[in-house]
Amino acid sequence: MEAKQLLQLADEFGGPLYVYDAAKIQSQYRKLEKAFSKVGNLRINYAVKALSNISILKLLKQMGSGLDTVSIEEVRLGLLAGFAPETIIYTPNGVSMEEIEEVAALGVQINIDNLSILEQFGAKHPKTPVCIRINPHIMAGGNSNISVGHIDSKFGISIHQLPHLLRIVENTGMHINGIHMHTGSDILDVGVFLYAAEILFETAMHFKELEFVDFGSGFKVPYKKDDIQTDIEELGKKLSRRFNTFCEAYGRELTLAFEPGKFLVSEAGFFIAKVNVVKQTTSTVFAGIDSGFNHLIRPMLYGSHHFIENISNPKGKERFYSVVGYICETDTFASNRRIAEIKEGDMLCFRNAGAYCFSMSSNYNSRVRPAEVLWYEGKGHLIRQRETFEDITRNQVIMDFEPAVATTA
């Protein structure tokens, strides 16, 4: 999308504003399909937690996607968007048995990641198909907070606990129809996937009724010019060949599944905010915007990089700015960043704002959350209204207190 289009949308819908380019989401989906076109059965389950707007879910459903969910609320969003239960996989962590049973009753594919819940569920529901999430003990990911397959991770059943896992399956007689892993996000080295694949394939041979093998996701997208990213074409070529060989050894053709979130929606997202103040201090020039980590927390939480462009003056002379928010804590989006000259009232655009941006927003400082717009077939469509003060107070139960009674000594 071009600066002119983004400015028009900000003018039409107000700011701060999230904008998503449907064409980019569609092209990323097709890119992944093409990379694994040599696999007989490919299933792409979009990771709802990345961006859970129902209109985004419906767009991906139109393309043939399934869903990867981590909560019963995400499952319900998927059903509301029109997904069939059997096209949804549910991979929670640390949730109650009651929630898992409630999801299972909806007909959704269950994916269990600890031995205790596996044994409990298998004893009560031996005929319900279950996928197992394996922890391969591989350290992978762009940040410790998004590396989830290492030995100290809370996610998955340790590969070293396989004998115990097999005993539970045998004792309960439960039906294991899938095996799953997810090592982390922002993985660059294709070799990591291939190494983990060998662990997963070896584990899969212990289960005779599998229908699919699920590799999660973690594909890295570029965050700035000339940034490195996961080579999807190379991964598709090498992993497809190895998966087809595995299927021959297993004795039948299985489904290869992935759960991309960031890969599909990150680059499609733009966050637009207005500069309230340009503040010169003894050592820094701050550009303070009408937003903060209540709207976009990733730079503060993960140290993530978002390319920032002054779309009001895209060809202006570049100067150095620290872009900060209006939260009463340090909420720095970028430090000492080269940006076209900024004036108060200019609109800044943050790139790669499609994944884990709006979905992690909050009402901190009692601020309202932005509107969301989908740019689809040359037109901006409002897909979430901007919150109001009434939205913040709607669920509060306000108590009345009697005036304090004065006392005398």
Automatic annotation (TrEMBL):
The gene is lysA. Residues 18-354 form the Orn/DAP/Arg decarboxylase 2 C-terminal domain. GO terms for molecular function: diaminopimelate decarboxylase activity. It catalyses: meso-2,6-diaminopimelate + H(+) = L-lysine + CO2. It holds the Pfam family Orn_Arg_deC_N. Residues 23-266 form the Orn/DAP/Arg decarboxylase 2 N-terminal domain. It comes from Flavobacterium rhizosphaerae. Pathway: Amino-acid biosynthesis; L-lysine biosynthesis via DAP pathway; L-lysine from DL-2,6-diaminopimelate: step 1/1. NCBIfam families: lysA. This is Diaminopimelate decarboxylase. Its EC number is 4.1.1.20. The keyword Cell membrane does not apply.
